[in-house]
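Sequence, structure tokens quoted for completeness.
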Amino acid sequence: MRYLSQRYSMPYAELKGLLTDIGVEELGHLEMVGAIIHQLTREMSQEEIIRSGIDTYFVDRTAGVYPTAASGFPWSAASMAVKGDVIADLNEDLAAEQKARVTYDNILRLSDDPDVNNVIRYLREREIVHYQRFGEALRKAMEKMDQRNLYAINPSFDRKT
């Protein structure tokens, strides 16, 4: 949702298209992770639910897929970084892709299920590609802005009138 929201304020058509493409792909990632969770939990016995520690989740959600962090914090729009500034947003995107990669790394450290791991490895690879694409996007945006040091000067604000 972050990328699909950021695209509205992106002034460059090529980069707007990139945000759209990656945003749509990320929705596919959400579907893949949701399918894995559903497949792993849909037929759990009462004993397995208690032993796995998801009993409190089960009480509220049964085996429904409810987007939360591993800590149990539910997803909300408050976690989306949308500033409306090209440089700020693309830097947020770079960070988001790295955080997703680290999350997948951590899942791979804990999981011993080869079917799950294959999907997680694929998703991890896509996060790396997205990171690279956002790096390219940041370079292109900086070229279009005709600035070398964005932190020292922003011509649209720093011009003397």
Notes: The CA atoms of residues 18 and 133 lie 8 Å apart. The first helix runs from residue 2 to 6. The domain at 2-158 is CATH 1.20.1260.10 (Ferritin). Helices lie at 2-6, 13-41, 46-52, 55-61, 86-110, 114-145, 155-158.
